Amino acid sequence: MLQYSYRPRFPETARTRLASDQSWIDYLPITERPPIVWPNKARLAVWVCPNILYYELTPPDDPWINAWARMTPDVMMYGRQEFGPRVGFWRLLDIFDKHAIPCTATINVAALRRYPEIRDAIVARKWDLLGHGQFNTRFICGLSEAEERAYYQELLRDVRELTGLTMSGMGGPGPQAGTENTPDLVAEAGFTYFGDFFHDDQPFPIKVKSGKLISMPYPVEMNDVPIFSTAFEGEQFVTMVRRQFDRLYQEGAVSGATMCLAVHPAVIGQAQRAKYLDEVLIYMKSFPEVWFATGRQIADHYMAHCYDAVIDRLATWEQTS
Amino acid sequence: MSDIAVYDRLPHATSGIANRRKLVWPDGKRLAVAFVVSAEYYEMQPSADAFIPPNVPGGFGRAPYPDFRAFSQREYGNRVGIFRVIEAFDKRGIVATAAVDQSVAMRYPYILRQCLARRWEIAGHGFSLTRVISNHMSEDVERAYIAAALEALERITGSRPKGWHGPEYGESVRTTRLLAEASVGYVLDWPNDEQPFLMHAETDHPLVSIAMALELDDVIAGWHRRLSMERWRNGVRDALDQLLADGESNGRHLVLNLHPWYIGHPHRIGYLEEVLDDVLGRDGVWLTTTGEIAAHALQSEAVKPD
Asked: Model ipTM?
């Protein structure tokens, strides 16, 4: 179902970089990288991201993106999303509890404010938090550098006040989720990983002006939203996730692999679907040498044990080899 | 020529397959099978005059700059996906054609060298996914565009590519002639047949068209139509059945266009392996390359100028 849409004509966003293209990510093919060694020599690090979102029924106009593609308010589409915090979340929570999954919640701050029971459930379980902006209906693609800097400060402060927790990851919100300053400002604010690059199976350094930042590829594939927005249902979801897991588990014998599974209570929390999430978690839990971790744990390990080796390799690697 | 001029000017004849001379493949095989692997670069900041079709896959549609998501979803192919695809071919001893755009060639010569080390064929593939040939492009710009893409590949590989595939299958009304003038030998943009045929190149240099099976293009099937990969794999299986039967009377070909950013994901690569195993298990298949098909067509009695 059509969620967001870009406006037919939108204003230009800032383009001050002179490079003809992106300069955040260096090229190092996966075949040329130093092997990743996870704690306890796990073959595969798995992180699971339930999305805890807040959609506004009547969001402010945005010059670039229509939060509701059909009309505002769109009660049908809003209601579909609101099913998430009302019902779907609680169904998924039972499944995560059953398997003791250390989740990394992708959160809109407004959801923590608006749904205190969900906030308390997250805090009680010591889930990790991956920043996803204030609202899923307000976007940052037109923010000035100063506005965006303030945005991340406010986000971190609000989360600290609401949960007592810090956040180490950031990505989104919305279909286009950044300005050309975003990686620099995310690093400057103290985040260590960024989720809006889908270019890889592994974490990878992002070049920023200050601090250290890595990309932790958030899943555009292992994600219930794109999967269930097609003709796919639970059986296909299970097939995709199992195949992803099997392949990465096999490859993980050579270099530690990473798999992220993103789920949305409004989507896979529906009555006809939740059991398929249970099914894939049972499957993945049945294997040895799998590290169920949070985004922060994976990022911290990569920063401590893998980051420098990749930087060194980048400095010495020649494409002519 | 008069009827063509009256209706719609096409750069090739419109003869139906039932009335053609018999095309005989080497060793009397019924079906030629070849694979094209398209390596493409998605510019986050395309030039202002570039034509980009509205439904180029990746991200969530054309977004305001900087669109990290569309760029990086496509870039996955060059960093990760293509190496799974290469491995799948390696393990089975199959040689493919890599259609490599100029941006990938210049930025990532490593990819070209990996293909060359396996004796893969290299085909021109334009400048980038975000600069597509169409009638919006002037003749002079298009001529220079084709030349630059071919020269970039030649500089790295040491030989000029014989094949061409425009990004997004894009062409102008002039492309056939311009490709022939650039000494390109075959083109992969017209998904309209199961046999090679000659284009009306308007020059002395012959240009063969080799049709790729559009609806078995992994991105057309999986991204645009959102078919599950089971159905894609089964589609290839069914096509092989039909083409091998049809190939009894007149040789056919099946050319699959594969995109590492899509099929190179861990959960999809197994389906490519299953398709390759299916092809290898068939009698009557000439497992070959697009360049070999074009060369065979040029010396075949069946493929003659009208």
From this structure: 0.96
